[in-house]
Amino acid sequence: MFDVGFWELLVIGVIALIVVGPDRLPGLMRTVGLWVGRARATMYSIREEVEREVNTQGLRDTERAIRESVEDTAREVSDTARSADVSQDVRDSLEGATRNGSDAQSTSAETDAPAGDAEASEGSAPGEDDGAAIGSEPEKEQKASNRE
């Protein structure tokens, strides 16, 4: 703003002393100080209002950008949901066809089961697997004697 140094203030003070006189100079300085303080306070409040308005405008711009982003995202999500609905219908159709085919295969596999499987399971109880259980040596000998 203004560049007022020491020498400029000294010249103003000497001129004020000559014009006003030594009697009224302290009152004049006090009044000038009050006016300078009021001017600073006014400038500070104006600067604060301008900054607040700029921030408000910036917030409005930010809000507008966020709203546009949310709307774009909502459009993308709805488009994806529509395409997911179509692909879900296709998946359901494929699963139904696959289920029908696997049911037919399992029915034919049950009727074609070999008779030798029944003989292998006669020596053990249902759910018991001799090959999977690892026991101690006496248990193995006992099982061998039971089979004879």
Task: Describe this structure as you would to a colleague.
- By secondary structure, the chain is mainly α.
- It is 80% helix and 0% strand.
- It has helices at residues 6-20, 25-111, 116-120, 137-147.
Blueprint (SSEs and pairs):
Elements: H1 6-20, H2 25-111, H3 116-120, H4 137-147
Report the β-strand fraction as a percent range: under 5%
Number of strands: 0
Estimated helix fraction: over 70%
Task: Show unreliable segments.
Answer: 116-124, 127-133
Radius of gyration, in angstroms, nearest whole number: 49 Å
User: What is the typical, i.e. mean, pLDDT?
Assistant: 76
Could you state the order of secondary-structure elements as H and E? HHHH
Please outline the major beta sheet.
Answer: none
SSE-based structural type: mainly alpha
Distance between the termini: 115 Å
The geometry reads as elongated
Task: Give a brief outline of the structure.
This protein is mostly helical. It contains 4 helices and no strands. The protein starts with 5 loop residues before the first helix and ends with a helix.
Which labels suit this protein?
148 residues; mainly alpha; 4 helices; elongated
